[in-house]
Amino acid sequence: MPEIRVTPLGAGQDVGRSCILVSIGGKNVMLDCGMHMGFNDDRRFPDFSYITRNGRLTDFLDCVIISHFHLDHCGALPYFSEMVGYDGPIYMTHPTQAICPILLEDYRKIAVDKKGEANFFTSQMIKDCMKKVVAVRLHQTVQVDEELQIKAYYAGHVLGAAMFQIKVGSESVVYTGDYNMTPDRHLGAAWIDKCRPNLLITESTYATTIRDSKRCRERDFLKKVHETVERGGKVLIPVFALGRAQELCILLETFWERMNLKAPIYFSTGLTEKANHYYKLFITWTNQKIRKTFVQRNMFEFKHIKAFDRAFADNPGPMVVFATPGMLHAGQSLQIFRKWAGNEKNMVIMPGYCVQGTVGHKILSGQRKLEMEGRQVLEIRMQVEYMSFSAHADAKGIMQLVGQAEPESVLLVHGEAKKMEFLKQKIEQEFRVNCYMPANGETVTLPTSPSIPVGISLGLLKREMAQGLLPDAKKPRLLHGTLIMKDSNFRLVSSEQALKELGLAEHQLRFTCRVHLHDSRKEQETAMRVYSHLKSLLKDHCVQHLPDGSVTVESILIQAAAHSEDPGTKVLLVSWTYQDEELGSYLTSLLKKGLPPAPSGGS
Amino acid sequence: MAAHLKKRVYEEFTKVVQEEVTTKKLRLTKPSKSAALHIDLCKATSPADALQYLLQFARKPVEAESVEGVVRILLEHYYKENDPSVRLKIASLLGLLSKTAGFSPDCIMDDAINILQNEKSHQVLAQLLDTLLAIGTKLSENQAIQMRIVDVACKHLTDTSHGVRNKCLQLLGNLGSLEKSVTKDAEGVAVRDVQKIIGDYFSDQDPRVRTAAIKAMLQLHERGLKLHQTIYNQACKLLSDDYEQVRSAAVQLIWVVSQLYPESIVPIPSSNEEIRLVDDAFGKICHMVSDGSWVVRVQAAKLLGSMEQVSSHFLEQTLDKKLMSDLRRKRTAHERAKELYSSGEFSSGRKWGDDAPKEEVDTGAVNLIQSGACGAFVHGLEDEMYEVRIAAVEALCMLAQSSSSFAEKCLDFLVDMFNDEIEEVRLQSIHTMRKISNNITLREDQLDTILGVLEDSSRDIREALHELLCCANVSTKEGIHLALVELLKNLAKYPTDRDSIWKCLKFLGSRHPTLVLPLVPELLSTHPFFDTAEPDMDDPAYIAVLVLIFNAAKSCPTMPALFSDHTFRHYAYLRDSLSHLVPALRLSGRKLASSAVSPNIMPQEDPSHQFLQQSLERVYSLQHLDPQGTQELLEFTIRDLQRLGELQSELAGVADFSAAYLRCQLLLIKALQEKLWNVAAPLYLKQSDLASAAAKQIMEETYKMEFMYSGVENKQVVIIHHMRLQAKALQLIVTARTTRGVDLLFGMCEKFLQEVDFFQRCFIADLPHLQDSFVDKLLDLMPRLITSKPAEVVKILQTMLRQSTFLHLPLPEQIHKASATIIEPAGESDNPLRFTSGLVVALDVDATLEHVQDPQSTVKVQVLYPDGQAQMIHPKPADFRNPGPGRHRLITQVYLSHTAWTEPCQVEVRLLLAYNSNSRIPKSPWMEGGEISTQAETGIEGTIPFSKSVKVYIMPKPTRR
Predict the structure, then answer these.
(1) What's the pLDDT tens digit per position in B500-512?
(2) Interface of B with A in 417-436 (CB under 8 A)
(3) Are B509 and B516 in contact (CB under 8 A)?
């Protein structure tokens, strides 16, 4: 029984550490290879030993696909390829390929240099790992091997984010990665065609949220920032270096320009320079507005936004600072947060999702006192605001995508279990398709009924067409032919051709049946009576009386003979070939009912 | 002398010969088209050759009388031809030929149908069906032929090629009979149910055929056939088609049906409720606003705007994304879902942790898709493509105009759109807001957002916003104050907006007198005890404040009491200088110049208008004065009119127009007064500068009169043309007097007579009004003129010019002189625009045009280089905007280039009005029907400069090597 098996190693009923194994049509594909922000031990990487206990991963996996450059989707890649050992192809889009190593390097620096972790991957490993990457373009069908093909679709979310369709024969799976159905200031909306996959694996971060119009959100955000700045307060916006940061930068930049504000805007880390460079490069991946106006001015060349220096944090007066990372779990954003947390004039705006266990999650859930390292207690007086700027599709967006792709079943990953539950119910109810939400390590098996293409010879098709009316899409048609299975391909040919090809002689199968009739007349007369009887009944068929006394109906032969024992009974010999089975059996049943009484002299 | 005589004789002789030649030319018969074609086709050795001949043939138009012959030849060749591409071309030619005006294609019919039956190639078949379509459309009166064609189409519907099926459906859509029981003919041809046949092809396997079927159905609707309601369900199924063009067409079809049967009841699937069809269709189209293809989204968003019969609660859902429950089921369910919402079942996305799903009973009631109208506009307005957003804004506008409650609700969304990233969308939403502003009152926070846009750097946006504020309703005095402050800020930032801001404040004041009242002391900074300093009268900001206050004071009699002394003085000054912005106030106890004018004078009785009429009448009635007196009177009147035009801006058009006419007359009289004419023999001297200059000037003036004024009617055009004809006559006479040799004169004579003929043809209807005029007499003498020699013609013309009377120019109702002001470049810069010679530099040109008709084709930009080289630039049609009636703005870029100069120099930039008097000639009918577009009719005959020229300092640098 053909089937598709899906096992999440990460992101099953959870956010972070995305890693999903898919077996389809005998091929094994790993989707994403991320790390978890909330953990600093072994749990931060997926458990690759699940894939194969003792054996090389390369032998088992056909390819790895990375949907976008966020660390929770690609953070474990060097560990996986260099330390665990994988030499097969890794597929990602061009922007992802360009930006991914920067982020990995940044991540490595924080882990190794700041926290002093040992046994972490090295810069060289990142480089080696990136050498295994094969870049794909949007809507380009890439043949991984002869049977497995993948295709990328635009996903919004961040620069270079893509959804991937994985196809083997007629079976296919679509993995969305993270995506966004509403366009923002720098990226467009996700789009997929009606590809009707067997399974759609979709993220469900905002399974229970239906967001307001983005314009209200933007206005709220600008208003909050503006008010704080006018009060003389400082605004901290923890962001990930890439993605939301660029959108918010464009938003603030245009606002500053319009309102003629003077307060400085800073962007932390040198990473931005490099990242913005890539945004300037990959203009084709951005939204309509930026694509259309970049000739006059590239929107990513900011006028008001300057690089941040650590010393600036202590400067008096208002300022806006974008600092990484976005969940306040480490790095510069946490440092600045500690400095500013005590002043109620200041404000921190969390523009995205925060994983459980991070400082960001704690302050958002209302904690006003935080225990920091070294038993320090930090009291938070600054205002904490949450703006849902996260570029994930909301419940309606997810439903919209499901509607667009028309899958046979849906599998939810990258979300919290109880929220998934709600969405699962909705999907099952409204699309009437199965919906799964496996936990990490839990396998979902999906039986499929792949359609098998069969080649038909044109001659046969035309001959069959000529017999009936035009083909009607709604009605199945019966077709006579021979199915030849040879070297795993199937052909339907006419029986004559099949015989010729296989070098076989034609055999005829004949059925013969005897029908006893009470008739005391001579054989010829009986035959005559049978003839006239059949002639009157079968008006559509060609009924003939042959000179040797036998009767034919089409190719069916009927002969009358006297019964050897009982002269009052005549035996009718009915003989037909296998092809005429239908007519033959009909005739026999007809004859078994007996002949009508003869017009002259009743018996 | 003898030599001279000889020469004259010779000239006379040659002239006669010429005349013969010309007549001969006219009688030249055209070679038979069909014969030539036949020869060509027979010559063709290969199909490629034949195709070439046919292509060449197709480039020239064919006259109606020779069509039949050509068709025969083509058909004959068709039968013989084996190559499908040639047959295809012939078929297409047949179609084109049958469209020729004056040719009845019924004779081709039989042949076309005949060859159709034997044709094997699908492409040729499709083309032949197209030909049939052309024939059928031409013979739309003939029922029998139509039925025959429809029969043929039905027969070929089962063809395997999509192209053929497409054409068949198109035929059915265009020709399928409208009434069901027209078979009075004894032939007994059963009228087919076209709708049913077309409907069957909604489920064709080819998406192109499905699209064609829907289009055919829409075509039937357009032709007036009432579509059955059963189509609705079929169309609904097509909404989920895989192909965008099918979905797009299906959306249109659904819209059509919903307009036809708005009140029918349709059941809701999966429940036993029923709703109105228009509501159901509205929900379905709303759903398409989130379709995968943006083409469909645009289509759906556009159509939403015209569905006015939809129930209001459906309409309001379109703005409510959060309302997810399937509202169509029950009214109570609607209420319940709303409660669920307000209790926070769904996260607004602004608070952390409020998005945990509640117990299952509640979630079960929520429907995430299929909720039809829910949030359609919210989606549309934040769509990725600006085309969709614009369509959504337009639709909002249309719906809001028909429902004031909806207008109130959509306000927030429109205000949000003011911050869109694409300027076009912002502009569109501001315009929309203006259109619906009668229905709404702006809240303060909305006003705040709106006013934020005043700082926009785009002038279009700011001006649109001023227009919006002109007709906005503001609810509080703080709002008014806020608006004023922001407008003044705008004024300080962009001083060029002055007029627009003043106008805006004028309306703002007159609409909200009671809100302005409490603000007056603050605005005028008066103090109860102390006198404050008198503000500067020339400060545009102060004028702006006064405009607001005075307009409010007009309907608020208590307000003047709050004014200080200098305010009254300033009022008197502004009432005089800016009379269009400051209304007349009734100020009790004050003796002011303006109060002498009683306010109840109606514009019709305006003394200035009367004055204009009187002075014109005086001129027209006193035409038999002695020449000297006439001249003087004309001069005085022209002077008066010009002055009047300067004083009264609303009469400027009329005054200028009349003055121009009088000036022409004056010039004509002056020219005829010249001594030159008194000499009997031609002098061939350069003495007649004045006369020829006058002729030229009259010509110019007449062109200006004809093309520079908007609102000129036909009766004025006649008079203007008549004046021009006189000028031409004058020119002819002067030439005859001053030029030796008869060659030139002969040509001019010919041309003049042609002009007269042309005049007669164009204005045949108006000739009775021209009693006793120059042309009237001229036409009487026409037969004589044609036969006489040039010298004679000149003599006749001269006497007639002198005897001709002065025609009365009837004044049009509304007449405005076209004018243009170049705002940018300002021409003040001392820094030359440097560029490398040989390359181009782009110069931004920004100009306002007033009262220009069809500026896209007439307005040109001229650049004059110091070396006398002139360059004319045709701006793109998209460079013109239309901010208000009669006003246009030209924002374009002019590319300058020149060879290197040694030092910077100035180039002149000005605007021209191009005209072409030939555009008034009625086109001959066969030209339109021709295969080739008649070219050269949009050519420019001449240009009139109508703006002041601006100097731009440029410096082409030599290229560095």
Answers:
(1) 899 899 999 988 8
(2) 417, 419, 421-422
(3) yes
A196 Cα to chain B: minimum distance (Å): 11
Helix (H) or strand (E) holding A560: strand A556-562
How many domains does the structure of chain B reveal? 5
Contact between chains at A422 and B383 (C-beta distance less than 8 A)? no
Residue A516 forms part of a structural domain: yes
Residues A194 and A78 in one domain: yes
**Choice between B874 and B798, residue whose per-residue pLDDT is larger:** B874
B384-420 confidence digits (pLDDT tens)? 888 999 999 999 888 888 888 888 878 878 888 887 8
Question: A329 lies in which domain range?
Answer: 214-386
Lowest mean pLDDT among A138-147, A154-163, B299-308, B820-829: B820-829
DSSP assigned state of A50: G
| Residue A185, CA atoms < 13 Å, CB-side half-sphere | 25
Is the link from the previous residue into B682 a cis peptide, with omega within 30 of 0?
no
Classify strands A171-175 and B841-850 as parallel, antiparallel or unpaired.
unpaired
For residues A240 and A365, state if they share a domain.
Answer: yes
The candidate with the shortest Cα–Cα distance to A10, out of A73, A103, A64, is A73
Distance of CA B887 to the CA centre of its chain: 12
Give me the interface pTM, i.e. the ipTM: 0.77
Number of separate domains in chain A: 4
CATH number of the domain to which B180 belongs:
1.25.10.10
A420 and A484 assigned to the same domain: no
Cβ–Cβ under 8 Å, residues A300 and A279: yes
Same domain, yes or no: B205 and B233: yes
Q: Among residues A82, A203, A247, A385, which one is catalytic?
A: A203
What pLDDT was estimated at residue A474? Answer: 59
Q: Which of B352, B366, B375 sits opposite A365 (nearest CB)?
A: B352
Q: How far apart are CA A1 and CA A21, in angstroms?
A: 20
A442 is catalytic: no
Same domain, A396 and A318: no
| Shared-domain flag, residues A495 and A456 | yes
Looking at the fold, whether B840 and B789 belong to one and the same domain comes out as: no
B352 to A213: CB separation less than 8 angstroms, yes or no:
no
Q: In terms of residue numbers, what domain contains B863? A: 818-924+939-957
Minimal C-alpha gap between A212 and chain B (Å): 6
User: Which of B322, B349, B352 lies nearest to residue A217, judging by beta carbons?
Assistant: B349
- Are residues B865 and B947 part of one domain? yes
**Subunit contact A213:B422, Cβ cutoff 8 A:** no
Positive or negative, the Cα torsion across A576, A577, A578, A580? negative
Give the integer Cα–Cα distance in Å for B704 and B720.
10
Q: A116 and A236 share a domain?
A: no
pTM of the predicted structure, to 2 decimals:
0.72
Domain containing B394 — which CATH number? Answer: 1.25.10
Nearest to A215 among B367, B369, B382 (CB): B382
Which of B384, B393, B423, B494 would you mutate first to test chain A, the one with the most A CBs within 10 A?
B384
Does any domain span residue B653?
Answer: no
- Return the residue of B nearest to A216 by Cα: B416
Chain A residue at shortest CA distance from B489: A259
Nearest C-alpha neighbor of B420 from the set B375, B389, B452: B389
Judgement on whether residues B452 and B422 belong to the same structural domain of the protein = no
Partner A, chain B 123-182, Cβ-Cβ below 8 Å: 158
Q: Where are the beta strands (DSSP E) in A50-127?
A: 63-65, 90-93
Please judge whether B357 and A219 are an interchain contact, meaning their C-beta atoms are less than 8 angstroms apart: no
Considering only residues 257 to 296 of chain B, which have any Cβ-Cβ distance to chain A shorter than 8 Å? 290, 292
Interface test with A, best of B350, B422, B423 (most A CBs within 10 A): B350
Cα nearest neighbour of B362 on chain A: A422
Q: Which residues of B204-234 are buried (b: 16+ CB within 10 A; e: fewer)?
A: bebbebbbbbbbbbbbbbeeebebeeebbeb
